[in-house]
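Homework help board

Subject: predicted structure for assignment chain

Our instructor gave us this sequence and asked us to write out the predicted structure in token form, then describe one feature. I got the tokens but I'm not sure how to describe them. Can anyone check?
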Amino acid sequence: MAHATTLAVASEKGGVGKTTVVLNLGLALARRGWRTLVVDTDPQGAISLSLDRDASTSAGLSELADGTASFEEVRVETKVPGLSFVPIGTVHGDSERLGRALDRVVELAADSYDVILFDTASGLGGHTSAVLKRSAQVLVPVQAEPLSLRTLKGTLERLAELREECGLQLLGVVLTMVQSSDPVSLASVQEVWSVLPSRIVFDGFLPRDPAFLKASAYGVPVQMLSRRRPPAVAAVFESLAGEIEDRLGLDIAKEDDVVPLLA
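My token output:
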């Protein structure tokens, strides 16, 4: 790809699994061969702390905006080929400052990455609004519970306004924290499928699983909890990444995907 696709993960409500989606989806996309840059735009720095316990004192977006650090200095390479991230840095609550930094990141990373994935703060104003205005697409996690569903209408209305304002496109809605044994959770899933067009809701969903809590405690994607046998739930992100490839129009048939059997 000549230029990176910018994808924000955003939600009006907090605690719906945004950071979990971003971290694990970034890994899944990188493992599928896409050069992926994960950018933490949340002032709380959740994804930065997940990847680097010292991220709160590391240079990041804020320093890039101020010109006190270069893109190369704020970009952190992971052990996974093709997966990098940029921490939030020190934040002073200025969305314009964040916007300048994001413009710089997109400018410098556009030709080196296939996907730039933004983690955002809860809500769709302030910092998150600055991110959405610089994203081509947005993915909305929706927790499978009644309170989360009540915020969905307002979220979609605000995203429709942004579509008119800056061309932001809704990539889709992904259900999170689904409990197959809980009637209330299942009823919430059914409601989402009944009120939204099927083309909007992703087939893949995130179940409520202890593996996610364990991965969060260790600060790693769930896929990396075990070298030999990752938790079965990690497969949901492979499925989700495949759907996102299709919706983003990524070129799956890359020539270097085929590996000859003999040398």
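Reply (TA_rk): Your tokens look well-formed. For the description, you could write something like this. Residues 5-247 form a domain with the Rossmann fold fold (CATH 3.40.50.300). That's the kind of observation they're looking for.
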